[in-house]
Amino acid sequence: MRCRINQVLAWTFLLAISVLSPQLLAVSVANRDLPVEKAVVTSPPMVPPAITRKGNAKVVVEMETIEKVGEMTDGVEYVYWSFGGTVPGSFIRVREGDEIEFHLSNHPSSKMPHNIDLHAVTGPGGGAISSFTAPGHTSVFSFKALNPGLYIYHCATAPVGMHIANGMYGLILIEPKDGMTPVDREYYIVQGDFYTRGAYGEAGLQPFDMEKAIDEDADYVVFNGAVGSMIGDKSLTANVGETVRLYVGNGGPNLVSSFHVIGEIFDNVYMEGGTNINHNVQTTLVPAGGSTIVEFKVEVPGTFIIVDHSIFRAFNKGALGMLKVTGPDDKIIFSGKQFDGIYLPEGSAIQSLDSDYKAVMATSETEQIAFGKRVYEANCQACHQAGGEGIPGAFPPLAQSDYLNADPMRGVSAIVNGLTGPITVNGKTFNGVMPAMRLTDAEIANVITFILNNWGNKGGAISAESVSNITD
What is the pLDDT of residue 431? Predict the structure, then answer.
C-alpha cells in the first residue's frame, strides 16, 4: 500500500513539473530507465576504448578547466588554458542517442571564468550559455547526442578567440548506433596555432599576443599543444599490417590545416568528421573548428612523418609528428634506395640558404645546448633526423660521428661554407651537397655544442669566437 502511494506521489510531482517545464518532464521520463555510467576520458594522443553496449545510457562527463604553465618548446613556457589539464582537452567518446550529463568545474586557481561549446550539441551556444562557470564553481547541463560524428569542443567565453588561442579545445566522438569498424590502433591529434610576444624559440615565459592573433601571424603551429609532442619517445607507434585510425581536429583559432602523413595514403577519410567517407586521399583539409577521421593500413616499416602540409608550419613552426612502424620489409611495396650516383647538371658551386632564426644569447654551456637544440630542430633535423641518425646513403649521421668528434670545427666549416664531395663517416661514404646556412656565429656555436653533447658524442663546447675565425 505504501509503495502504491509513493508511486502516485511521484507521478503527481512529475505532472506538476510538466506544467512549469515540459522539457524537464521529458528528460526525467527519458532518463528513468537508462543505465547510468561515468564517461571514460583520455589525454592526447590516446583514445577511450570503443563502446560495446548495444543500447543507450545516461553518460556523466566530468571536466575541469585549469590554467597552468607548460612548455611550448625547449626553454619556452606558456600559460595554457585547458580542459582537463592538457592541450587538447580530454577525448570524450559516447554513443548516438546517449543522454549526456555534463559537469564543468573551473579550478579555484583560475583567473578567468570559462565555459564549453560542444559542436555536438543541438542547443543554444552548444552548451556555452548553460556552462558559464566562475573560478571555484561547477556548472551542470544535459544534452542528447543526436548526430553521429567527430566534433570539436572549445571555450566560448569572451574574448572567445583568446580562450581558444590559449589551448581550450578538444574532441568529442559520437559513435553511430551500429558502432565503428574495429581497427588496430586509434590516436587523438588536434592542431592549434599559438601567438606569443617573442618570436619562435625565444626563451622564457611568453605571454599571449593579441595583435599577432588578430593578424593571424602565428609563431607556433603545433600538434597536441607543443613542439615535439609526438616525436622521439613520444611518437605514435604501430606494427606492419595494422590499420591505424587518427581522430584529427583543428582548434585554430585561425589557420586551416592541410593534414598529411608522409609516405602513406589515407584509405578512408570521414569528410569533415561526418559520416560521408572518401577513399585514397593524400592530404585532407581540416578547417579551424573542424575535424576529420583518417584510416590507413601500414604495409612497410619505418618512420612516417605527420605534418600540416602548409609545409613551413611543419619544419619551422612545429606542426610535425611521427608514426614509428615496426615489422618486416616488403621490397615489392617499397624497395628502398637501389642506386646512388652523382648528378650535378648545374655545376658544383655551393648553394646557400637564408635563415631568419633569431638566436637568444647563451651564458653557459647548458644554455648553449638548450638553444642549440632549437637551432637544430629548425634547420638540421629534417635531414639528419631527430636522433642524429641521418638517412643512409643521403645524409651522414651526427650520432657517434667519428668525422665530427675528430675535429668539431669540420662541422662549423660545413655550416658556414657548405660541403660538397665525398666524406667518410663511421666507415660509410657520403657524397652529396650540404648548403651553407646563414646562421649567426652564436647559433653555429650553439648547434655544434648541442650535437657534441648528445647521441654518444664526446662532449665539449664551441664558442662564438672560434666560429668567427672561420666566418671572418
Answer: 81
Distance from C-alpha of 467 to C-alpha of 445, rounded to nearest angstrom? 7
DSSP string, 98-120: -EEEEEEEE-TT-SS-B--EETT
- Annotate 58-81 with three-state secondary structure: EEEEEEEEEEEEEEEECCEEEEEE
207 pLDDT higher than 70: yes
Gap between the Cα atoms of 49 and 170, Å rounded: 17
pTM here is: 0.74
Cβ partners under 8 Å of residue 459, min gap 6: 452, 453
For strand 290-297 and strand 266-270, is the pairing parallel, antiparallel, or unpaired?
Answer: antiparallel
Q: Name, in order, each residue with C-beta under 8 angstroms of 472's C-beta and a sequence gap of 6 or more.
A: none
Reading phi first (left if > 0) and then psi (alpha if -120 to 50, else beta), residue 321 is in beta
Bridge partner list, 421: 432
Alpha carbon 248 to chain centroid, angstroms: 9
3-state secondary structure 349-381: CCCEECCCCCCCCCCCHHHHHHHHHHHHHHHCH
d(CA 62, CA 41): 9
Show Cβ contacts of residue 433 under 8 Å, excluding neighbours closer than 6 positions.
Answer: 344, 348, 350, 351, 418, 419, 420
Q: Provide the β-strand partners of residue 223.
A: 191
Alpha helices in 419-472 (DSSP H): 441-452, 464-471
- Does position 164 have pLDDT exceeding 90, yes or no? yes
Distance CA 123, CA 471 (A): 64
Q: What is the mean pLDDT of residues 353-377?
A: 76
Q: Which residues contact 450 (CB under 8 A, 6 or more apart)?
A: 368, 369, 370, 371, 372, 373, 375, 376
How far is it between the farthest Cα atoms of the chain? 102
Query: What is residue 459's DSSP assignment?
Result: -
Residue range 230-241: mean pLDDT, rounded: 95
Q: Which residues pair with 175 in a beta bridge?
A: 95
For the chain, give percent helix, strand, coil, nearest 5.
25, 35, 45
201 SS3 class: coil
List beta partners, residue 63: 104
**Which of 48, 43, 46 minimizes the C-alpha distance to 59?**
48
Structural contact between residues 119 and 287, judged by C-beta atoms closer than 8 angstroms: no
Is 296 strand, coil or helix? strand
201's grid cell: 624559440
Question: Could you count the other beta carbons within 10 Å of the beta carbon of residue 176?
Answer: 13
Please name which of 322, 325, 330, 334 lies closest in space to residue 239, comparing C-alpha atoms: 325
Burial tier of 362 (Cβ tally within 10 Å: 0-12, 13-18, 19+)? buried
